[in-house]
Structures are given as structure tokens and as C-alpha cells.
Amino acid sequence: MRQSRKIDHINNALSRPDQADAGFKDIHVLHRSIPEVNWDEIDTSCEFLGKKLTAPLMINAMTGGHPRLEEINKNLAWAAMETGIAIALGSQRAALEDESVIDTFKVVRKENPSGVVIANLNAGCSVDEAKKAVEMVEADAIQLHVNVPQELAMAEGDRNFRGITENISVLVQSLDVPVIVKEVGFGMSMETVHQIYQTGARIIDISGRGGTNFITIEMDRCPGCTGGLSSDISDWGIPSAVSIVEAVETSLPVKIVASGGLRTSYDISKSLALGASLTGISRPFLEILIEKGREELADHIKNLISGLKKIMMMCGAASIEQLQQVPVVITGETARWLEVRGIDVSKYAHQGCKNRG
């Protein structure tokens, strides 16, 4: 069942358009007419999990756990190595239940021996399971994913989520690698970020609404057996742009990973300017890999990084740290949402101004 579901998820994800808008159309990074920056001085690199990346970008959690998916993970890992970005695995639960598919995950570290590789399991996993997942790929960290809407949309999905917060806390205390708590496309609120912070986790992937929609994917996979969820709830969740700001507004010492509907260099730059430390992209990378091959995927990632550098030039930022201080104007539905939530969006339009002349 779990292995066949992996294939269904890939096929259904690629056949469906993105879900509701992620909110990035409402985010505007301020142009600087005289940037006083030399192109050769602009540095898109960053440090993540103790290793240097060419840009704050990762191939986010997608797949594995079926023999047919080993080649996909191998090529994704090669592209990550070739471009110097991070890569996160899909859930390794299938490999814990069936050793015959372990190689579909282990191939990632084999192909990318020195890069940032992130393991992945559900946040309800045991300490022993998490340790095995980390050891399986010699991971630099582990994503613990939370996916309540997806589980509710699956006839065979979990229904009991009591104790998840405490379990994350136990995992944080018991593991030798950092824990990243990750949504799967439904976003996070300020309240959720506070809740996660109390567990001891210090890296949070908000994975907002706007990209792959796992409610509709599960509806496609098993029509009529979605546990009572109807199509009118397919836009459930918090848009990615909103989620980034809500996480930033907690003022907690956490690293924010922005994912969910990011597609372009501009989306990446907007996320970073809002306060994210890293960005993640999944489906677009998978589409390019399957349709055009791994060399085209590597070229696409390099173009994203080059595009980020050009945007940094246009707003006068020579480093990622400077980009995170560029003024950002928030408008439209995103501004209205945040204002109703008690957030003053005008301060983002003036951030960093005292240091910019």
C-alpha cells in the first residue's frame, strides 16, 4: 500500500496545477536605482547545517520508497551536488517497513557524499525510527513532517494526533542531528511556530499553501474515500508569504525555511527579504528532471541562482544578510490577512533603511 501510494503521489502531483496563490504577487522588493554594488562582489552563498551552500536553496522533500523511484532520487542528488544546494528526502517510512527499498534513499548520500542531505519522517515517529532514518543516509538533519489535512484526506490516514508536540520534544533531545519541523503545503501560524519552539526545534519549514496540494492529490488517488473531506476545502491552509511573516513576527531565534509555491528567483528573493533563511522547491524540479533530464535540472537551478544574484544587484544587496534587510512592500490580500492578525506590515517597507543612506 505505502509503495504504491508513493507512485500515485508522483503521478497525481505532476498532473495537477498548483493550488491557490502562494501570496508572492503581493510582495514587492524595493528597487534601488543606484545600488553601489559590484557584480563580482555579490555573494549568494550561505551556511546551513554547518556546510556552505552556493545559495539558500534546497530540493525539498519529495520521493523514495519504491524501486522505480531510485533513479529519480539519484538524479536529484546529483543535481544538488552539481549546483551546491541542499536536498531533503521524502518520507523514509517505507524503507523502515521494507528493507528492499532502502537503496532508493541511500543512493542520495552515495551520489552526494559531502553535501547537505536531510532525512525525513512523520513527526509521530519513534526515536529509534528517527535514528535509523538519519543513519540510513548519513543525514545532516531530519525533517519531521506534520501533515494533518493529508492524513484526514486518506482513508488509511492517521486520526490521532495527540502527543505530537511532546514527541517532537523527545526527538529533539534524543537525536544527534538538528530537527526541522516541516509542514507539507498548508502553512504555519505564529501560534504553531511558538508551539514548535517550545519543543526545542530551531529550524521550521513553513511549507505554505500555494504549491502541491495533498488534499486534492489524495482525492485523485482514491475518489470517494477521502474521509468526508469535500472539494470546497481544497484551498485550506495559510499562504506561504503569510506564513513566512507570521513566523518572523514571533521574533523567536529560529531559522525559517520558506517553501510552498516558490517557482522563480523573484519568489526566492522575496522569501529571503521577508526573513527566511533558506528556501525549498519541490515539484518544478521534479517536472524538469522527468521531462528534460538531470543536466537541464542543474542548468535550471544555476539559472535560479543567477537570477537571485541579479535581483540582489537591483536592490543593492551584496550578501544574503543584506538582502534580508531590503525594504519590502506588502500589499493586497497578504497585507489584509496580516493586518487582521495584528501585524504592522508598514515596518517591512522601512527595514534596513537607516543603514542604506
What's the structural blueprint in terms of helices and strands?
Elements: H1 2-15, E1 27-29, E2 46-48, E3 51-53, E4 57-59, H2 70-83, E5 86-88, H3 93-97, H4 103-111, E6 117-122, H5 127-137, E7 141-146, H6 148-153, H7 164-174, E8 179-183, H8 190-197, E9 203-205, H9 214-221, H10 240-248, E10 255-259, H11 265-274, E11 278-281, H12 283-292, H13 294-314, H14 320-323, E12 328-330, H15 332-340
Parallel strand pairs: 4-5, 4-11, 5-6, 6-7, 7-8, 8-9, 9-10, 10-11
Antiparallel strand pairs: 1-12, 2-3
Helix pairs in contact: 1-9, 2-4, 2-13, 10-15, 11-13, 12-13
Mean pLDDT: 90
Q: What about the largest sheet?
A: 8 strands, parallel, barrel
Computed Rg: 19 Å
Q: Helix- and strand-based class?
A: alpha/beta
Q: Would you list the SSEs in sequence order as H and E?
A: HEEEEHEHHEHEHHEHEHHEHEHHHEH
Low-confidence segments, given as residue ranges, are 1-5
Shape: globular
- Give me the oligomer status: single chain
CATH homology group: Aldolase class I
Overall number of structural domains: 1
